[in-house]
Write a structure and sequence with these properties.
Strand content: 15-25%
Oligomer: single chain
Distance between the termini: 82 Å
Largest sheet: 5 strands, antiparallel
Shape: elongated
Number of strands: 5
Structural class: alpha+beta
Length: 168
């Protein structure tokens, strides 16, 4: 009852109480094993997301941050400390991000947009992909961010080069 599943009930009686105690002991063991397995899976997922180059942010149905990896913190210049439970749109005031989150129903295809951060000439461009999810009785959105600043810069250089060659 208090979450201490290592405690065991006495099973020395051969009557109904002994059978009940044995059943409770097996149940406690199974719950302990499941909790350990879920904790291990959670640790593996967090390690995997932490090592990604892409930024990953998960928000719940109220757009409160449930997970944010270090790449997303860096790209969006989010503050240090615990972000869990804080509204994402209060942490990041970017129009494109708001559009991704508003009205993202479960089952809808992933939404995509480009987000511009900062003024020229130091502007950064992020490709943002949002997908809804449902699990454990909860709904939310996962946003994956890719820094495409260099790609956009190279495209501009190519356009300028073609324009200059055509002019000459």
């Amino acid at each position: 009852r208090e979450g201490r599943y290592e405690k065991r009930a006495g099973t020395h009686m051969g009557d109904e109480l002994g059978v009940l105690g044995d059943t409770l002991n097996r149940l406690g063991g199974e719950i302990t094993d499941r909790i350990a397995r879920l904790s291990e899976e959670d640790a593996q997922l967090r390690a995997m997301f932490a090592g990604m180059v892409e930024g990953v942010i998960a928000v719940d149905e109220e757009d409160r941050v449930r997970f944010c990896n270090e790449a997303a913190r860096s790209m969006l210049r989010l503050p240090r400390g615990d972000l869990e439970g804080r509204p994402l749109l209060e942490l990041v005031r970017v129009v494109g991000l708001r559009e991704l989150l508003v009205g993202e129903p479960v089952g809808r295809p992933a939404a995509r947009t480009e987000i511009m951060l900062g003024p020229e000439p130091r502007r950064r461009v992020l490709a943002a992909h949002a997908s809804s999810f449902e699990g454990g009785g909860r709904q939310g959105t996962v946003i994956v961010l890719h820094d495409i600043t260099e790609i956009r810069r190279l495209e501009k250089v190519r356009r300028d080069f073609v324009a200059n060659v055509s002019h000459e």
